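INFO batch 0412 | record 1 of 1 | parsing
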Amino acid sequence: MRYLSILLLFLPFVTYSKTMFPEGNLFLKESKCTPKENQNDIVLEQFYLNIPKLYNEQAIIENLKSTLVYKGNKVAKNYEQGIRVKSFEVKYSPKQMFPSSASLTLEEVESCTSTALLTQATIDKLIVTSSNRDEIFPEAPEFLTVTDNLITKDSALGSKLGSSYSEMQQRYGRFTLHIPINETYSLTLLGSKHAFLFKNDTFIGYQYSNNLIPTSLGNMLEFVGTPDAMVNSGATYSLSNFARLTEKDIKDLESTFKGFDFTKLSYSNSGNTHLLDGLTIGDWPKELGEPSNNPCYRFDSDLGEFIKNNKSKMTKLVDKNRKASYLTGCMQQLSLGSYEVNLLEQWTLSRAKLLVKDSTLALFTPWTFFKIKEGDSLHSLRLLNRNAVEVIDGETTGFTYKGWKAEFLTYEDAIYSGNLIKQ
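INFO prediction complete | emitting tokens
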């Protein structure tokens, strides 16, 4: 049973005093009760559209909570033995014209040995079991677009060497990917071809390459609308269109930039052709120091708490759907605000041209899920729980274990990736 209501926030917040609050047999989650069998959950939902932006996040969430508890007590009067909280989920959006919402899921009970009532007086005891905050960089433009396309010996895409991290983040709106290497160095990407190296939050190096990162990682990232990137070294060359280089062009590039790449193509009739493929400016140290620990999620702790406690240590990215997520140190993609984990196939670095790949991408280790690891056979799932294995098709296998519902992708009976949702 689902109850739905919508209230626009250009109206005053609704507040409920204790005297007007209807008190029914609405029990907190910790109440010791036996659920009534074969009964559907009762779901109460509330939406708020913050127009204009008058209220902060905490005020919106508290009002959502108060409204749902008020309605929950009214509904509870229809159930003789009462109803108990199963979950309380909140999704907050800081964006104008995007609603925030909350969902209170309740279950009818048969009997109880110990109860704790949920009323306006005890509302602080209602704990959020799932929080989904729209963190898709609300201060950024709708689509990340770079307008300055020029690359010189001391600047790239409008940013001069020596610029601060915050200045550049403000210029572009956001970065597509951010890897905190250690306390001194960090690496960011715009799209999949432009890399920026920072030392103590100061821009020290830029690299462009058509093969900067592994293809599998590049396919995950958002598309960045950049005009044709141009290189200035006396003459102007196109990067994205594989500029054809003469011998003089190559000498000019060598005298201007610390490093550049070109692809050499041979033709039987016209001889060799050199195509500009990538370049670097600034400082790219060979040694970046001891890398920070990028933790792995072990699935036996609360995912939201894990993200909260470790987000400064993990790699952050914006994917092709413009959703923000984190990468742990063992190829686990954690979706912000939702209890979902993607297990990623180990990427291949042999063709990646990123200069600091050994200090960054090479440190990611294969994923694990309890006793299962990448490359294990389907038999390993059956050893954990034979009755929970469901072959969906020739390449997909369903599996449920310790509250996680999984779909694994397989090849020749070996598991290589998967999607996990907390039930």
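INFO post-check: Residues 2-13, 15-19, 134-142, 265-269 have pLDDT under 50 and may be disordered.
INFO record closed
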